């Protein structure tokens, strides 16, 4: 799969603002790994959204 064509931009601000010495969250220093994990988290959030599949008809 080619991730280069993905229209989303790298979340630079989130990458730079990671808590480095937090025991609950592990900092990811590899930018490509961080980008991968961000996309996985976005996919999880989208997966758990509830949508109304009925739609409106007139």
Question: Quick recap of the structure?
Answer:
It contains two helices and no strands. It has 58 residues and is an all-alpha fold.
Kindly describe this structure.
The protein is mostly helical and 58 residues long. Helices cover 38% and strands 0% of the residues. The protein has two helices and no strands. The radius of gyration is 16 Å and the shape is elongated.
DSSP strand content = under 5%
Q: In this structure, how is the largest beta sheet organized? A: none
SSE pattern, N- to C-terminal: HH
Structural class: mainly alpha
Radius of gyration: 16 Å
Could you tell me the number of beta strands? 0
Gross morphology: elongated
Give the helix level as a range of percent: 25-40%
Number of discrete helical segments: 2
Distance between the termini: 41 Å
Mean pLDDT: 81
What low-confidence regions span 5 or more consecutive residues with pLDDT below 50?
none
Provide key terms for this protein.
38% helix, 58 residues, single chain, mainly alpha
Topology summary:
Elements: H1 12-16, H2 31-47
């Amino acid at each position: 799969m080619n991730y280069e064509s993905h229209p989303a931009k790298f979340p630079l601000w989130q990458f730079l603002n990671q808590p480095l010495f937090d025991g609950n969250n592990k900092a990811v220093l590899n930018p490509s790994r961080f980008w991968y994990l961000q996309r996985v988290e976005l996919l999880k959030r989208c997966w758990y959204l509830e949508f109304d599949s009925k739609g409106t008809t007139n």
